[in-house]
Amino acid sequence: MLLYLPDITESERQLVVDELLTGETLNNGSTLRNYELTLSHYRAGETISLTFAGQFAVESACDRCGVPVEVSVEVKEQYILFPEQSSPDMDYVYSGDAIELGPFVREAIVLNIPQKILCDEECKGLCPVCGRNRNDVDCGCMNNG
User: Fold this and answer.
1) Stretch (H or E) spanning 111
2) Residues 82-87: contacts with CB under 8 Å, at least 24 apart
3) How would residue 19 be classed by pLDDT, with cut points 50, 70 and 90?
4) Where are the domains of the chain?
5) pTM
6) Are 11 and 40 in contact (CB under 8 A)?
7) Distance between CA 12 and CA 53 in Å, rounded?
8) What is the rounded distance in angstroms from the CA atom of residue 104 to the CA atom of residue 52?
9) Per-residue pLDDT averaged across 18-29, rounded?
10) pLDDT tens for residues 57-94?
């Protein structure tokens, strides 16, 4: 999805970001599910502000017991872009007549995936002795040692 530079004015405008990445497997093995992001953008001189806000769902395995789980996440990330020729040290730059939004959407989502995904805050995890899911059964292994 492209955002054309002539469409970016000093007045803030909003744009609904299409579902560019839905179903994609991310770095940590999670799968991105439905997401709804709104892009607010404006220009201040040659500097461009992009703010992504909304929510998404990520499907993953519980970090303690391994059962599949889907987690909803709120996101709000802002990016300040500078003209490419302004400085080579800038993290976010633009050039040409359009900005490709895909990399910014991906980064906003990846930055907001929880570090630990759990099926439940009280998840007991797997038994370190027999490997059973301690949420489903009390195997007794920990009591026999």
Assistant:
1) helix 102-112
2) 82/46, 82/47, 83/46, 86/46
3) low
4) 2-143
5) 0.81
6) no
7) 14
8) 9
9) 68
10) 989 999 999 999 999 999 999 999 999 887 777 889 99
